[in-house]
Structures are given as structure tokens and as C-alpha cells.
Amino acid sequence: MAESSHISFSRELDAFQPITLEEMNSVKLMNRVDAKFLTNEATLRSVLRDAAAAGYRVLVTEGERQSPYDSVYFDTPQMRMFYDHHNRRLVRQKVRTRCYVHSHQAFLEIKRKNNHGRTSKKRIAIEPIETMEFAGNRDACAYLAKHSWFTVGDISPVLETLFTRITLVNPGLTERLTIDTCLAFKNFRTGECADLQDAVIIELKQDGRAQSRMRSIFLEHRIKPARVSKYCIAVTLTDPQAKSGRFKVKVRTIEKTIGKKLKTI
To answer: Rounded to 5, what percent of the chain is helix, strand, coil?
Structure first.
């Protein structure tokens, strides 16, 4: 994939107190509310400064405050999971593998959304070499059949997504924030590649009973909620045959946010 220049956030991240994965995983958000937001790298720099001043902590894994992720999304030959989302089906699923590059851990993940808009995720560990093809892993195949509508024979790899993630936790341990930058995609079926340039996708997971300082910070920087699916945006950008009219509106929103046109590379 072609490389593009991105802002370095090292100085801003050095201002945060660290939190370990073990500490973060001890936080249970029992009445969780999730929301996504969209911004650009220049605005994120200011958001990080405000978050550090407000006492947020940054997740440190393998000694790093930014972690590269490599995900592969699977779908049926008819792209059922993509079109279920596009057609606003309330109950839907996505199947992907995810590799945490620094730790060399990998998982098969099944994301499910119910008719109340709540999302759950189940996963099973796999080997990093199985992220593209896990048919030889009997445990993973059985897990997929048990927890999804699909079997390993129904689906195949469609799209790879690469990005760098920053994870923040508030002082009261009542919310987590994932911040994804350097988003890039490769479509295995069309051979097309694309990236989101300096767009930033943020997901806020918080205890619905607690006030959020981060929401106030977003408001101060004019960052608004935005429902953005990496998989669906990536397919829209890399597959001209996909019927993706609804997601083209999302693409234009991203372009407005970064002040640039998105295109294949």
C-alpha cells in the first residue's frame, strides 16, 4: 500500500500516565454505552492534550503507546454481511480475524448487533498465520459455527484493514476510548487499495450512568458523533461494483472532515 505522511503524536502521548492491559481489563462497564466519532489528525493533537490534562491514562503494551492492528474481514460470495449493514438490517453479524502486531496475538472475532442496537463480540485465539485461512483449525471452525450464522465454507477473506490504535481510560475507570489513525485497506477480491489519509475514527465506550469529560472535550473541538464502519467504508472505496449508495454519504462526510478527496491508491 502507498504510504502517506501522518502526524506523530509521541509528544502528546508522553504526557499521559500509563495503564497496563491487566489494569484496563479489570474495568467492567456494566451499563455500557458506545458511540463513534470522526475527526482529523490535527484536531486529535489538541484532543490528546486536553485529555492528558484531564487525567486520562494511555494503554501501554509491549512498551508502546500506539499499537498497529491488522484485521481481515470475511464475507459470503454475495457479500451478505456488507449488504445486511447497508440495508439497515437491525440484527446482523460481522466475521473477522485480528492480529495484534506487537504482541503477535491473533483471534477469530464475531461481532453481533441485536435489534436494540447493542453490539457484542466473541472471540477465540488462533495462530497469526491463520488470519487469512483458519479452515485447518477445528476449534476455530466449531466456534464460528456455534456463535454465528456461518460456517467456514460459507465465507472467504474480502478485505484487510491496517491501522494504528491509541487507547485511553478516564481517571474514574468508567470509560475507554479507542482512537484509530493511519487507516488503510486492501480488497482481496478486486485488488484495489485505499486509505483514509488523516481521518481519525474514535470509539467511546462508557458507563451509561457516569458523566463523560471526553464528551465535553469533543464538544469543545466540534467533534460530532458519526456512525462509521471500517469494513463498509473500505468496501465502498475499493469495490466499484458494490451497491453502496448509503455509505457514499459517509465517504463524503470523511472527505469534509479532512478537507480532501478519498480515492483508491
So the answer is: 30, 35, 35
pLDDT tens digits, one per residue of 152-197: 999 999 999 999 999 999 998 888 899 999 999 999 999 999 999 9
| Average of per-residue pLDDT values in the chain | 91
Among candidates 117, 102, 11, 110, which has minimal Cα distance to 64?
Answer: 102
Among 3.20.100.30, 3.40.50.410, 3.40.50.2300, 3.40.50.10140, name the CATH number for the domain at 27-258: 3.20.100.30
pLDDT in tens, 190-219: 999 999 999 999 999 876 666 789 999 999
Among all chains, which residue has been given the C-alpha cell 493511519?
A: 182
Do 201 and 195 contact (CB within 8 A), yes or no? Answer: no
Provide the 3-class DSSP secondary structure of residue 5.
coil
Q: How far is CA 144 from the centre of its chain?
A: 20
Three-state DSSP at 58 gives strand
Domain ranges, ordered by start, for the chain: 27-258
* DSSP letters spanning 127-154: -GGGSS--TT-HHHHHHHHHHSS--TTT
Which amino acid does the sequence have at 224? Answer: K
Q: What is the largest CA-CA distance in the chain?
A: 50
Do the strands 17-19 and 57-59 form a parallel or antiparallel pair, or are they unpaired? parallel
Residue 57 C-alpha cell reads as: 491514562
Query: Under a CB-based contact definition with an 8 Å cutoff, are residues 75 and 185 in contact?
Result: no
At 37, the amino acid letter reads F
CA distances from 53 to 7, 16, 49, 171, 212 (A): 20, 8, 6, 11, 14
